[in-house]
Design a protein that fits this description.
18% strand, Spore Coat Polysaccharide Biosynthesis Protein SpsA, Chain A, 2 domains, two-stranded antiparallel sheet, 328 residues, alpha/beta, 10 helices, 11 strands
Length: 328
């Protein structure tokens, strides 16, 4: 079995080295050869001059992007760089900071081997974040379900058959959110409950603002679904406004219950609500249709334009630091 592992890295080379040390013993019981594709997301710190590679890891590519493009786009470029290959059986996506544990990767590979044709995704068995983070996380999941009629309870950590790589890499929405793109593609999933690991070094670069942007990126993948839900809600509000206006007119003309000036104020308020219920879906429709008329760039076709240089490392049979054998 031939396995490729995609690792996005941004100024986290100490954790990356630690992960390389732990990957080899975690995977050595599997009958596989491992190639690592590390996507350097425009780090200000230079990649190490030498790295600890051990069998079954046989090759390591570090692809340095021309600028910082974000975690999700780094994954997209990593997948796109493998899409044209024919010598890979499985592709794993994981973070390099230690929160995705190599021991769990072994279980996921075994599950993928036992369930051919399924993408094995890691669902967190329990969350270790604070109460505030968990509140906003569950609120996000609820909003996501209301707007898209889909649920996402997994992240980037997964193992997918190579036959699905081109499918995913050709989708323009992959630029925004990897997990949501997998759900949107309707690929068969197998969920495996795993615990979150502990960072090897440093602090997480994911703050509240980045988490909000990450959630909005997931919702954007289902823009047509969101538009449909908002259109239905707007039509409901419009119908309710029209009916309420008719009730106000009826009360004003046929009874003496209306307080002077009340009918006019309520009428104007309902008219404003009705106009907003019309304008919101119309503006969204124009934006959506305008986006559909333009050709959306897929990661598979454009990823190579964002790669500045690459370094190739090959593993030694004995313990030691391995310098790159080629730099382009």
């Amino acid at each position: 079995m031939r396995l490729a592992i995609i690792l996005p890295v941004f100024n986290d080379w100490d954790s990356f080295r630690k992960l390389l040390v732990e990957l080899a013993p975690a995977l050595q019981n599997l009958d596989c050869s491992v190639e690592i594709v590390a996507v350097d997301d425009g780090s200000s710190e230079q990649p190490p001059g030498s790295l600890p590679l051990r069998f079954p890891v046989t090759r390591l590519h570090i692809l340095t992007l021309t600028s910082n493009m974000g975690h999700q786009r780094a994954i997209a470029i990593g997948l796109a760089s493998l899409a044209g290959r024919s010598d890979i059986d499985l592709v794993a996506v994981m973070d390099a900071d230690g929160e995705d544990r190599p021991s769990d990767l072994e279980k996921m590979i075994q599950t993928a081997t036992a369930n051919p044709g399924f993408i094995v995704v890691a669902r967190r068995a329990k969350r270790t974040e604070g109460v505030l983070f968990r509140f906003f996380y569950y609120a996000y999941k609820a909003v996501f379900w209301l707007l898209t009629d889909h649920t996402i309870d997994f992240g980037n950590f997964c193992v997918l058959p190579f036959e699905y790589v081109s499918n995913v890499a050709c989708r323009p929405e992959l630029w925004n959110h990897f997990a949501a793109t997998v759900v949107r593609a309707r690929l068969p999933l197998k969920k495996l409950a795993v615990a979150r690991g502990v960072r090897y070094a440093g602090q997480s670069k994911m703050n509240f603002v980045n988490l909000v942007l990450h959630g909005l990126g997931a919702i954007s993948v289902f823009s047509e679904f969101v538009f449909t839900r908002i259109l239905i809600a707007s039509l409901t509000v419009l119908i309710a406004s029209v009916l309420s206006i008719l009730v106000v007119i009826g009360i004003r003309l046929s009874t003496n219950l209306a307080v002077p000036g009340w009918a006019t104020n309520v009428f104007g308020f309902l008219v404003l609500i009705g106009l907003q219920a019309v304008m919101l879906p119309l503006s969204m429709a124009f934006m959506l249709l305008n986006g559909r008329t333009a050709l959306q760039p897929s990661p598979k076709d454009f990823a190579s334009k964002f790669i500045g240089d690459s370094r190739l490392y090959t593993a030694a049979t004995e313990a030691g630091e391995i310098p790159p054998i080629a730099t382009t």
